[in-house]
Amino acid sequence: MPRRPTVLLRELIQTSADFEAAFGEELSVNATDLDAMEHLLQEGPLGPSELARRLGITTAAMTTAVDRLVDLGHVTREPHPSDRRAVRVVPTDSSRAKAMSILMPMVRGLDAELDHFDEDEQRIITEYLERILTAYRAHTPEPSRARRVR
């Protein structure tokens, strides 16, 4: 008898966490720094306060994280283009390239697996995943959800 989708989903979640840990190791960053990098790579430059809000950490902790990322060459601090008092945290081109060299083969592999399914099957898969996300969000306490604004 095939395994239930919920069992496979739990295995997928654990494997995803393992991938994320390995990704952080490849970039020589801890979980907080990786979380910050993911926001910057997805959203582009952000202010340290906004990054702290998105990660659910203090601005002091974010300053320490940004310092580490600057020291590792992953980000730079740049003046905000329209507010001279503010700075933005900007991912470096080399860090973006390294992150993409790790992420994109995995993403392409996932997309290739979808090609094995026709349009109707992909619609069903998408609907299932949307429902799973809704269920997870319904059982995730508010502070944790607010912590990872995407």
Features:
single chain; 150 residues; mainly alpha; Arc Repressor Mutant, subunit A; two-stranded antiparallel sheet; 70% helix; elongated; MarR family transcriptional regulator; DNA-binding; transcription regulation; HTH_MarR-typ
Summed up:
With 150 residues, this protein is mainly α.
Characterization of the model:
This protein has helices at residues 5-27, 31-43, 48-55, 59-71, 93-114, 119-138, 142-147; strands at 75-79, 87-91. The protein has 150 residues and is mostly helical. It has a single domain, classed as Winged helix-like DNA-binding domain superfamily/Winged helix DNA-binding domain (Arc Repressor Mutant, subunit A, Orthogonal Bundle). Strands 1-2 form a two-stranded antiparallel sheet. The termini are far apart.
Q: Tell me the name of the CATH class.
A: Mainly Alpha
How many extended strands? 2
Number of domains: 1
Question: Strand arrangement, largest sheet?
Answer: 1-2
Please, how many helices? 7
Distance N to C terminus: 38 Å
Strand content: 5-15%
